[in-house]
Backbone:
C-alpha cells in the first residue's frame, strides 16, 4: 500500500507544513480576535492567540492528501472531523457553551458509527468474545465523545495536549508496525508530524495556543485511530490497550468528574484541580510539570506495548502495576481534594508498610 519512503515523505510534509502554517494562523487568530484572555483558573498571564490547532489540521491534511490512505469508513470520518473543526473554530472565536459543543460531538460520533466503524465485540479472558450487538453503537459514540473531551480537558499548559497526543499516536504507531496495519501507520505518521510541527511554537513558553480547534481535533483523531487499530482486533484484552495508552487524559477526566460530583458541582464546571494544576501547586515549574506528565504518558504507552504482547498472566501483572501507578499518582498529587501533602504522607506510609511486609 505504501513504501517506507512514501511514509517518510508524508511525515515530513505534515511536519514542515505545520511549522510554516503556524505563524500565519497566529496572525489570523489575532486579526479575528480568537484570543485567550487570562483569568483566575488559567496559568498564562497575558492575552494569547488560540486557533493554533488549525496549523495541525493543515499539516495533517497535506500529509493525508499525499498518502491518500483508503478506508470504507473515511468519508464519514472526514464529515465528522469537519463538524469537530467547525465547532472548535467557533468556540475559539466566540466561546460556546458546553452543551452546544457536546451536541456537535455527539453528531460527529453518530455519523462515524453510521459508517460501520464501531466496537462490535470485546475479547475477555476465560469468556471468549462478548458480542455487543446494537449496544456497540452506544459504546462507540461514548468512546469518541469521551476521548475528544479528555484531550480537551488536559489542554491546560503549554505543549501538554500536543505532547500527550504525540505520545499516544506514537504508541499506536509502534503497535501498528508490529501488526502490519498500514492504514493506522499512515494516519499516525501524518498526525505525529503535524503535531510536532505545531509544538515548535506551542511548547513552553508558547507563542500560540492550539485552542479547541486543535484539542478537539486531536481527541477526535485519537479516538478514531484507536477504533481502527484495536477495537476491531480479536486479541485478548484488545479493548484495554487504548485505555492504557490514554490513561493520563482518561483518568484525569475521571477524577475531574468524581471531584465535581463530590463537591456537588456541575460536571461541565471548570476547576483548577487537574493533574497539571496539582503538580504546579506542589512547586514544580511549568516546563517540569509538562515533562512529568510526558513521562507518565510515555510510561503508559510503553506499558500498552508490553501489554499487547504479554501472556494472559503477564497481562494481569502489567494491568495490576498500572492500576497501582494510577492510584499512587492520584494520591500523591491529590487529584480528588485540595490537600496535597497529606496524600503524599499516606502513600509513603503504604509503600513503607508494603516493603516491610515483604521483608518479613
Residues:
Amino acid at each position: 500500500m505504501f513504501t517506507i519512503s512514501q511514509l517518510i515523505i508524508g511525515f515530513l510534509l505534515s511536519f514542515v507544513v505545520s511549522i510554516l502554517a503556524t505563524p500565519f494562523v497566529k496572525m489570523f487568530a489575532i486579526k479575528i480576535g480568537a484570543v485567550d484572555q487570562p483569568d483566575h483558573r488559567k496559568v498564562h498571564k497575558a492575552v494569547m492567540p488560540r486557533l493554533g490547532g488549525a496549523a495541525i489540521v493543515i499539516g495533517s491534511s497535506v500529509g493525508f492528501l499525499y498518502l491518500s490512505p483508503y478506508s470504507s469508513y473515511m468519508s464519514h470520518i472526514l464529515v465528522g472531523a469537519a463538524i469537530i473543526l467547525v465547532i472548535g473554530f467557533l468556540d475559539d472565536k466566540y466561546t460556546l457553551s458546553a452543551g452546544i459543543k457536546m451536541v456537535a460531538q455527539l453528531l460527529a460520533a453518530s455519523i462515524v458509527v453510521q459508517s460501520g466503524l464501531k466496537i462490535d465485540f470485546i475479547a475477555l479472558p476465560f469468556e471468549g468474545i462478548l458480542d455487543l450487538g446494537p449496544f456497540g453503537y452506544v459504546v462507540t459514540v461514548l468512546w469518541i465523545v469521551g476521548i475528544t473531551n479528555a484531550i480537551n480537558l488536559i489542554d491546560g499548559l503549554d505543549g501538554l495536549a500536543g505532547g500527550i497526543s504525540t505520545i499516544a499516536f506514537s504508541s499506536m504507531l509502534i503497535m501498528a508496525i508490529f501488526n502490519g496495519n498500514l492504514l493506522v501507520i499512515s494516519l499516525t505518521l501524518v498526525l505525529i508530524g503535524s503535531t510536532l510541527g505545531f509544538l515548535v511554537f506551542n511548547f513552553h513558553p508558547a507563542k500560540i495556543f492550539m485552542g479547541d480547534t486543535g484539542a478537539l481535533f486531536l481527541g477526535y483523531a485519537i479516538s478514531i485511530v484507536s477504533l481502527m487499530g484495536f477495537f476491531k482486533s480479536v486479541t485478548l484484552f484488545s479493548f484495554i490497550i487504548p485505555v492504557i495508552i490514554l490513561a493520563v487524559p482518561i483518568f484525569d477526566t475521571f477524577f475531574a468528574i468524581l471531584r465535581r460530583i463530590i463537591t456537588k458541582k456541575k460536571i461541565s464546571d471548570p476547576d483548577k484541580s487537574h493533574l497539571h494544576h496539582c503538580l504546579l501547586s506542589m512547586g514544580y515549574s511549568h516546563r517540569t510539570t509538562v515533562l512529568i506528565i510526558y513521562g507518565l504518558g510515555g510510561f503508559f504507552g510503553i506499558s500498552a506495548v508490553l501489554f499487547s504482547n504479554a501472556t494472559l498472566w503477564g497481562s494481569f501483572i502489567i494491568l495490576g502495576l498500572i492500576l497501582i501507578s494510577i492510584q499512587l499518582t492520584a494520591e500523591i498529587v491529590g487529584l480528588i481534594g485540595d490537600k496535597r501533602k497529606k496524600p503524599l504522607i499516606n502513600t509513603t506510609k503504604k509503600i513503607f508498610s508494603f516493603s516491610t511486609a515483604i521483608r518479613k
